[in-house]
Automatic annotation (TrEMBL):
Pfam families: ABC_tran (PF00005). SUPFAM superfamilies: P-loop containing nucleoside triphosphate hydrolases. InterPro entries: AAA+_ATPase, ABC_transporter-like_ATP-bd, ABC_transporter-like_CS, ABC_Transporter_VariousFunc, P-loop_NTPase. Residues 7-237 form the ABC transporter domain. CDD domains: ABC_DR_subfamily_A. Keywords: ATP-binding, Nucleotide-binding, Transport. This is ABC transporter, ATP-binding protein EcsA.
Length: 243
């Protein structure tokens, strides 16, 4: 029997309204795995993630999530993905409670169960007393924490986290990495873009290095070392050699 792939991206060609950015990107993320998406500014990381979550439509190629295809089954597909954007998306007129409820409705979650998970997350990020506040007015890091609470409260099988490691204080980074570990243990697939290579090296199971809209290298740290012929080097040294 083949390996069960949570996410499979095959020959993805894509970009913005006919401006090609990605040239045949291939990647996969298995259940219980954290894959780090790395690459220089403009390499195509966010564009790749925007295709996976369905904001952008592939020019060609295929994206499947546990066998589901976005084109054929958009509602089911989108419920299987939770997304923490690089820049928080919050509504001026909604309270923190209303943001959480909006997410619960979008993912058709049982509210009692979802509130149990939400309350735990809010406590972790010290937001439990701010349910009636308007997060659009929060600090940058607090806004990011709200987005993390919303995404991690769902029961999505794939978590997409776009550069979460900037703007969060060290305690919140530690808490986020623990939450990712809990999700992995529950069989969730996690794809995280980041420039913070020392953290990526310690926590990611595998890496996909993008350069100019193409996968330049992929694999475990050991595989990247072998590929770059640099047996003892750290991820950032390998990256500087390949990117
Ligand atoms: P960074 O590390 O800076 O976040 P990235 O790897 O996420 O970079 P992308 O944001 O995916 O890179 O950008 C890839 C390319 O797509 C860049 O050339 C960028 O100019 C282009 N691009 C990004 N957003 C748009 C857009 N809305 N319209 C047109 N082109 C865009």
């Amino acid at each position: 029997e083949g390996i069960l792939m949570a996410l499979e991206v095959k020959n993805l060609v894509g970009g913005y309204s006919q401006i090609p950015v990605l040239k045949k990107v291939n990647l996969d993320v298995q259940p219980g795995e954290l894959v780090g998406l790395i690459g220089l500014n403009g390499a195509g990381k966010s564009t790749t993630l925007n295709h996976i979550i369905g904001i952008l439509r592939p020019f060609s190629g295929e994206i499947t999530l546990n066998g589901l295809n976005l084109q054929d089954n958009p509602n089911e597909y989108k419920k299987q993905i939770a997304y923490v954007p690089e820049t928080p998306i919050l509504y001026d007129e909604l309270t923190l409670r209303e943001h959480l409820e909006l997410t619960m409705n979008a993912y058709q979650l049982d509210h009692d169960q979802a509130w149990q998970r939400a309350n735990k997350l809010l406590k972790t990020f010290r937001l439990e007393n701010k349910l009636d506040w308007f997060p659009a007015n929060f600090s940058k890091g607090m806004k990011q924490k709200v987005m993390i609470c919303c995404a991690f409260m769902t029961d999505a099988k794939l978590l997409i986290v776009d550069e979460p490691l900037y703007g969060l204080d060290p305690l919140a980074v530690h808490d986020l990495l623990n939450l990712i570990a809990e999700k992995k243990a529950a069989g969730v697939a996690v794809l995280m873009s980041t420039h913070v290579l020392d953290t990526a090296q310690r926590y990611c199971d595998r890496f996909v290095l993008l350069a100019n809209g193409q996968v330049k290298a992929h694999g475990t740290l050991a595989e990247l070392r072998a590929q770059a012929d640099r047996p003892d080097e750290s991820l950032d040294e390998i990256y500087l050699g390949l990117a």
